[in-house]
Amino acid sequence: MAKGKERHMFPGGNTSKGFFSYYDFVLPQEKAKRILILKGGPGVGKSSFMKKIAAGLCGEGCDIEYMHCSSDPASFDGIVFPDKGVAIIDGTAPHIIDPKTPGAIDEIINLGQFWNDEGIIENRDKILATNQQTSELFQRAYRYIQAAYSIYKDNEVIYNKAMNHGKANVIISETVDRVFEGIGISEIEGKQRHLFASAITPEGLVNYLSSLITTQERIVLKGNPGTGTERLIERIRSAAIERGLYTESFYCALNPIRLEHLIIPELDVSITTSNEFHNADVKPTLEIDFNEFLDQDMLNKYKEETKFNRKEFETLLNRAIKTIQQAKEKHDELESFYVPNMNFSEVQKCQEEILKRL
Fold first, then answer.
1. Pairwise CA distance, residues 246 & 249, whole Å
2. Does residue 185 have a pLDDT over 80?
3. Total count of domains within the chain
4. Helix (H, G, I), strand (E, B) or coil at 182
5. Which has the closest alpha carbon to 201: 29, 299, 56, 320?
6. Does 289 lie in the same domain as 350?
7. pTM of the prediction?
């Protein structure tokens, strides 16, 4: 049997607004038949639990979506089997998830039942201290990211000022007409899904665009911050919703409310932003460079400012990444208090039982 299709993304991210969650869109309740919520402390085997179930079902030909952890991309915060309407999600901090439709859709799997309470209690003070240190490191990282974004925004203002928005509006209108040619307005609004394709992680900037931008039509947008690439994507999304089409929106790792990539599965169309921070390694069917509409004379007046901003942004972002690395090291230390006190043979039995049910 052929292996199922794999897609990779992030349900949450380390952003200028702190940890930002789109976990409600991992598998919306209206599409779900069963959502298993894993509970338990660090090191109890939640990610390994999901990996083994994913390997079992993917080998049987099931399509799968891997929801990576922005604080450790090698780990999973969730897996989704779209055709089955099934998801398994890590429901512990910082993305605490509780059942919304208990029994009918949602079910809690508590891996904490398989640990040795006495062994963990013995390390109580160390666990509390390490938890506190991890939290402090993440908060510091978020302050660095917020500072980096403030500088990034200054460049946005400069490029926006130099932009010929009239010419950009013409291109935006022409592209919307191209995507929706012959498709009328619907009486029913299209459904939406919101996630991240990229994240600021201990490994640096990581993106999974190559697993997502696989449609027949691939519109690639280029342009400096402030040139208006997001305006085009937002216009296309709005038009898709008006026509009753389902959309998948993927947001900026730095600013989690800024739209950067859009997929319209029913039209087999993707619109993706390509820049120095993330690039989809795909051959575009249409490429639009918004930098062509910039007033170069005006940019030359602010050359020193934009150069300074870019350098300081990179310095602060790299500092944030280093701090997230330190937080991961502390989290790994936290796991070391739980791993020796886990009965992993019982966890494996639980995993095998879940796999049979699915």
1. 10
2. yes
3. 2
4. coil
5. 320
6. no
7. 0.94
